[in-house]
Amino acid sequence: GESVGLHLPTLSVQEGDNSIINCAYSNSASDYFIWYKQESGKGPQFIIDIRSNMDKRQGQRVTVLLNKTVKHLSLQIAATQPGDSAVYFCAENGDQGGKLIFGQGTELSVKP
Amino acid sequence: GAVVSQHPSRVICKSGTSVKIECRSLDFQATTMFWYRQFPKQSLMLMATSNEGSKATYEQGVEKDKFLINHASLTLSTLTVTSAHPEDSSFYICSASGEGGYSNQPQHFGDGTRLSIL
Question: How far apart are CA B76 and CA B71, in angstroms?
Answer without folding.
Answer: 6
